[in-house]
Amino acid sequence: MAKLDESLLCDLPPFCLLERAQIREILEAAVSRRYEAGTSIFEEGAQADRFFLLLDGYLRVVRTTPGGDQIIVLHISPGQLFGIAPALQRETYPAASVAAVESLALSWPVRLWPEFTAKYPGFATESYKTVGQRLGQIQETLTEMATQAVEKRVACALLRMVNQSGRKTEAGIEIAFPITRQNISDMTGTTLHTVSRLLSAWQKAGIVESTRKHVTVTDPHALVLLSELDP
To answer: Is residue 1 scored above 80 in pLDDT?
Structure first.
């Protein structure tokens, strides 16, 4: 990884407390790989042999329920660590990771995790902060699925994606990665028919614009109100 300038990573959470020389040491142990959209980077339950940092693209984190259903529990944005099973004291990956778009990631063998966290305290501090945030996001999603009405769940899911990756367009705020109605169904524990019905109604109301793989929020305030509806 000698060609990657460490200055590009200085502001990213795992590295923001490190000196440039320390970042260079970490990069020299990394392997870079590009993943096509739809590629599974690792499967749930697989042996955790590497941990990763997403440089470009977006990933979906997918869990399988005891009943065999797949749930998208969160998305990973550029600059975030993922596949950090050793931070959870696990030898296997707790979820699958799938490229939502063409993505580029660095990775390191898990045997380096104890060395990195011991040698670079800033790396450890920021990495475990990421773990806490990630677990909180997953818990929030699962709580919504168990306790909230479908309309509120779908509104909350769209808002999370807008806050994470939204980019302004003439029409409104577009979710930056491809998102299908089936994906939203998998995120909210509801049926494809229900998601389609809601998005169609919201489109007629001027709240969203939904095409085959893209969603644009045209009235963010209205969507926020939907996410705050009492049961």
So the answer is: no
Structural domains in the chain, CATH included, are: 6-138 (2.60.120.10), 148-227 (1.10.10.10)
The pLDDT value recorded for residue 2 is 46
Residue with tokens 């644009």: 216
Q: Which two tokens stand for residue 201?
A: 């109604």
Note the pLDDT of residue 3: 66
Q: Which two tokens stand for residue 15?
A: 């590295």
In the predicted model, what is the mean pLDDT of the chain? 88
**pLDDT, tens only, 99-111:** 999 999 999 999 9
Beta partners for residue 74, in sequence order: 61
